[in-house]
Design a protein that fits this description.
The chain is built from three helices and no strands. It is mainly alpha-helical and 75 residues long. It has a domain of 41 residues. It starts with 6 loop residues before the first helix and ends in an 11-residue tail after the last helix. This is DUF4169 domain-containing protein. InterPro entries: DUF4169. It holds the Pfam family DUF4169.
């Protein structure tokens, strides 16, 4: 007689290999290079500095909005 084989083990191993292959393909297809990531971070930082420079002095708009409406009370 032959050896007893656990088919679930082979099925899971095959599925794992296929998922790893698909993940590698997706990394190549959708991934960003290090240079692209650094460029995106620099753009985000630059935009943040620009917006911070345009911030109005005084209280935050979120704190003052809705304060005039007396009927909006939290329950």
């Amino acid at each position: 007689m032959g050896d007893v084989v656990n088919l679930n083990k082979f099925r899971k191993a095959r599925q794992s290999r296929e998922e790893k292959r698909a993940a590698a393909a997706n990394r190549g297809k959708y991934g960003r290079s290090k240079a692209e990531l650094l460029e995106m971070k620099a753009e985000r930082d630059r935009t943040g500095r620009d917006l911070e420079g345009k911030r109005l002095e005084g209280g935050s708009p979120a704190a003052t909005s809705g304060a005039e409406d007396g009927d909006k009370t939290p329950d």
